Amino acid sequence: MKCGPVFLPLTAAPPLAIVREEHLPVKEELFMELRRTEQGFALYKEKDCIGECTLSPAPKGAQLTALCILPRWRRKGYGSYLLKEVLRSFGGYDREAATVFTAPLPENAAELAFWGKFGFAAEGGQLVRRRTPDLTAVKFVQDFLAARLVHPQLCVDATCGNGGDTAFLCNLTAPAGRVLAFDVQPEAIRSTRTRLEQANVPAERYELVCGSHADLLQYVQPGTADAVMFNFGWLPGADHGVFSTAQSSIPALQAALQAVRPGGIVSAILYSGAVIGSDEKQAVLRFLRALPLKSFTVLVCDFANWAETAPLPCLILKK
């Protein structure tokens, strides 16, 4: 393929991705394919290859050597599309992943401005795009638990959702600990089981319960759990009309406080917004602030420059 180089970053992507061209700023609605090649990727419009990208995979991203779009297809969004898809395929837009992409330094200001739109900047004679993971509410809570708990033996994910916290707890309690995970939605249990199986977590190390977290004392003896995690709200990717409420959340928190041992931790991430309102969040905060200091230390970890509706992590340390 003969065309002038337009340098862009890339790494590993699916062997074949088929997309509709309606995502691009052009009128035709034809199909495109992003194909993996020995050198990197090729972008096809119907049966014609209209662009290529060559690269070398790197541990946290990729080293791009060149990307070119055929002259007749330039300035129509194809270069931007290809770059975005490659970055996305290799974690470039993952909020929780640290990534580094590099590419040759372009010769003119226009190409440099193009790269700048995607976060690239000149550094040491090349273009570099670095992304530091955002500190999310979930990551904040997980980091706190990992730093404070030493060899936990029994942990509970009271709202397993898609299994993120369950997988975290399985890793935290390894190799001899056990994790109990609850969710009232069968699809959440299926999603969590699939995630754990794909991570090769031994089945004997966890138990998944399709039921209310308010019933956790039916499964956990009081004073025996090292930690209980709650991530309230709704199941990501599912019906947002199904979400937790204070009517079940507060009894579940009360049960969790009985379940954890002295020195144990109960974490809760609270949500509010147009769909779910703020009733649960405010009711749980009133409950937490009323807990006796002689028995518990309560942290409400407000991110001061986030929106008021941002997730709010809370931590309860049992004395």
Largest sheet: 8 strands, mixed
Class of the largest domain, according to the CATH hierarchy? Alpha Beta
Number of helices: 7
Q: Which percent range fits the helix content? A: 25-40%
- CATH fourth-tier homologous superfamily of the largest domain: Vaccinia Virus protein VP39
Question: Which class best fits the helix and strand makeup?
Answer: alpha/beta
Based on the structure, what is the oligomeric state of the protein chains? single chain
| Poorly predicted residue ranges | 2-29
Mean pLDDT over the full residue set: 86
Evaluate the radius of gyration.
24 Å
- How do the SSEs run, as a string of H and E? EEEEEHEHEEHEHEHEEHEHEE
Structural account:
The protein has 319 residues and is an alpha/beta fold. It folds into two domains: 116 residues, Gcn5-related N-acetyltransferase (GNAT) (Aminopeptidase), CATH 3.40.630.30; 182 residues, Vaccinia Virus protein VP39 (Rossmann fold), CATH 3.40.50. The protein is 25% helix and 30% strand. It is built from seven helices and 15 strands. The strands form two sheets. The chain has an eight-stranded mixed sheet with strand order 1-2-3-4-5-6-8-7. Strands 11-10-9-12-13-15-14 form a seven-stranded mixed sheet, sandwiched between helices. Helix 6 runs parallel beside helix 7. The chain is elongated. It starts with 15 loop residues before the first strand and ends with a strand. The N terminus is likely disordered. InterPro entries: Acyl_CoA_acyltransferase (IPR016181), GNAT_dom (IPR000182), MnmM_MeTrfase (IPR010719), SAM-dependent_MTases_sf (IPR029063). It comes from Faecalibacterium tardum. This is Bifunctional GNAT family N-acetyltransferase/class I SAM-dependent methyltransferase.
